[in-house]
Model the fold of this input.
Amino acid sequence: MENKIVSGTIGFIFFVFVSSCSPDGHPEPYGALPSGAQMEWQHMAYYMFVHFGPNTFTDMEWGSGLEDPAVFNPSELDCLQWVATAKAAGMKGIIITAKHHDGFCLWPSRFSDHTVAQSTWLEGRGDVLKELSSACREYGLKFGIYLSPWDRNHPGYGTAAYNRIFASTLEEVLTSYGPVFEQWFDGACGDLSVSPYDWDLFNRTVREHQPQAVIFSDVGPGCRWVGNETGYAGETNWSTMDTSGYSPGKHAPPFGILNSGQRGGPYWIPAEADVSIRPGWFYSPATDDQLKTVDQLMDIYFGSVGRNANLLLNVPPDRRGRIPAGDSIRLMEFKERRDSLFSVNLAGNARVTVSNQQGGGSRKFRPAGITDNDDRTYWKPADDRTTASFTLHFDRPVTFSVLSLGEYIPLGQRVARFIAEYSDPEDGKWQLFARGTTIGYRRMFRFRQVTSEKVRISILEAGAPPLINRVELY
Ligand code: FUL
Done:
């Protein structure tokens, strides 16, 4: 009896598997593909970076490691306030500098004597990671760790023993504070001539203890640095790359490659754009009046999230251990601007026609998959088509100044060139209003207002039949 149930279950699974692969036009995957964890990460789009530590109190960007741990003494540390701020700002998680280059650990590490335990804060009994991870859980935000391999304090740094010390430190953090969505490895380093970093060991340690964590570095493997600290991905931005022969830091790929990825690269390593709301990464009273404006933040948003990257925006807590009011207000203004811009997606009301469609009468891959606001549905032209177009028809003219497009990336990033046109209300001729190269998970454009009853997107070049699952007009 039990056996029957088991074999019945297997039969069912087999049936589902076979039928989902049956020849009804289900597209073949193309090139490197994202993992489930990378897909979840991609959906997050925008999250907070928090630089906090002795530098907050000494007005430094790179501490020497010789700082007296007593300098770390936030008077009103409140991680709930950080998390509430991030949540209200529309961010989906927080990555904290658990240990920056100065080596100071924001948790009482067993592998260092330069930590919160040696500080004056809460008489050495505090643990920032504990407070932050539990605040994240309470608010439903994801928690991420920045841990600098470069350690200007640790006496073992640069010696053969250091790789094990760093791996143990990593293991300690990754096994003490619950799920970690991203492990951030900084490429900046000191003298490694005696003993280079053992990246395989570091990555293995992450995989062992937090298999779902996306590993960030100059070369991934989970996601990659975008090649600058200004928050901009390339207008061309492939999530694929060939990292063979490269490693984080001094042997990283050229900035241009990091910024644009590589068409046909064998690994899926999407870009993450990191930038600070202030001129520096750490808090300084000198930068209180130098916050990025809402216009600058909007430009960065379109330059990162709008170019197939995730945005990691740094908002450093002050010496009280709170996000200053000015920064918090700026985040809310930025959120309000996005909310009002993206409030009504005009494309949702459009009728869609396509130049070509998967044959066989399949209801899957219908043109409506482009506008139905469902990430899992998409339009697919016939198997032999790598160019195709779709048109949005409106009952009456609509006015818009933003276009957003997206590919169904679980089956690979395909589009290499496209144009967007509207039909001129005067003479019905097609007028170009945007042109681009890659699309990927999301590609957004801003332009001067357009009014029309018809909008046409033409894919002019793709490595395989384009699978478009998103078009939005605002
Ligand atoms: C860099 C570091 O050197 C900066 O201090 C900062 O942490 C930035 C995010 O990464 O490599």
